[in-house]
Amino acid sequence: MDRETAENRIIFHVDVNSAFLSWSAVRRLKDDPGALDLRTVPSAVGGDVATRHGIITARSIPAKKYGVQTGEPVTQALKKCPGLILVPSEFDTYREYSHRFMDVLRSYSKLVEPASIDEAFVDITDFIREMPGTGQADPGDPAVRAAAVKVADMIRDNVRRALGFTVNVGISTNKLLAKMASDFKKPDLTHQLWPDEIGARMWPLPIGELFGCGPKTAAKLEGMGIRTIGDAAAMDPAILRVLLGESSGDYIYRAANGEGSNLVRVEREAAKSYSNETTTAEDITTDNYDIQAPAIIRKLSDKVSARLRKDSVRGFTVIVTVKTSDFQRHSRQSRLDRATDDGDEIFRNSMKLLRSLMFGEGGEQGLYREQSGIRLLGVGVSSLTQGDEEESQMTLEDLARAREQAEAKANPELDRLLDMINSKFGSGTIRRGGR
């Protein structure tokens, strides 16, 4: 098993509800707001839709009520639910929404460990420590537990509002218990499973529901009379090792007793996104928004742009993050038609997103309606592509900008020169006129 950190941590497991089905539904609703929401009817992703062969890879909650299971043949699922709506897999859509989902999680913590395309572990300890009355984030403190639930609910609300789908959040002190908690009941719920609750909330569960205990292992344990997780926890570990083998027997015993790693391992691969954020000198309210917000977003956009150009990458998704005066984080993002590394474009889109988030748009209430001020601002770009990978037709906006630059006799090396000067002598040392 992974080594554990010495100090207590607060760990979340965040899991997208019916991910592939949900992401397909969100994509269809985005393309056609009047389309049928697949999540509200018996539907499933899987197999060849035309021939109705293959297996089910995801299903809606209504389909689950008919007994439709992931991994079963489509023909069998159709016998259970003849009206089942089948949709094909959309791997590009899954990748896009997975990246955006992870971006939301990273707006709360730098310690995010993707467990798969639709779930991740998040070490939220440092975020909770910043909240009033939480001290060193002792997980035994009722105030800390209440704060953890509040943050989990914030994440669920943020994902739902910004991306259009729902997640479950499990809370505990290690990854095993957080994962067990997130699976308790779905969808769109927050669950806690603290070490002092293991006996009451985990031990009565069937042994097959223990994370990491597969069907064959569960069957073997049940054959020995070990039917619940509590039965395994009370068993002599030496017997489990003989029955299951040294490694598996030790794991089942430790997991049944709630032991697991609290080390959230951050990806060390190439960057998935570029972002910068800053705490404001004073809260940004409706009174000083027009003076304070544009200057800060301008600075952050230029920083992100410089980093993108330095690494020769561009991104399709622009993200704005705020922390309000009540310590809640919120984010809003939008997908561009073309990948960009341009500070002006990042700035324009960031300002649109920020205004929508704070003042509301299309009937949706903005955060300022809740009497919130902004104490932190962040700008990011994700859905990255190498500088020369993406080729597509220029938009009218691209052509207009190119014409403006040509009329101004723009130097093609100007951006890189500005980056070098600002990097050496400090951000904002020199900038373009008229911006």
What would you say this structure looks like, in words?
This protein is an alpha+beta fold and 435 residues long. Among the domains are: 20-90, MutS, DNA mismatch repair protein, domain I, CATH 3.40.1170; 203-256, DNA polymerase, domain 1; 273-425, Dna Ligase, domain 1 (2-Layer Sandwich). 41% of the residues lie in helices and 22% in strands. The chain has 16 helices and 14 strands. The protein has helices spanning 19-31, 61-65, 74-80, 91-106, 125-129, 142-163, 175-182, 198-201, 215-223, 229-234, 237-244, 246-256, 289-310, 343-359, 396-407, 414-425; strands at residues 11-16, 43-48, 53-59, 85-87, 112-116, 119-123, 167-172, 190-192, 273-284, 313-324, 329-340, 360-361, 364-365, 374-386. Strands 5-6-1-7-8 form a 5-stranded mixed sheet. Strands 9-14-10-11 form a 4-stranded antiparallel sheet, with helices on both faces. A hairpin with a 4-residue loop joins strand 2 (43-48) and strand 3 (53-59). The chain starts with 10 loop residues before the first strand and ends in a 10-residue tail after the last helix. Residues 388-400 and 402-410 have low confidence and may be disordered.
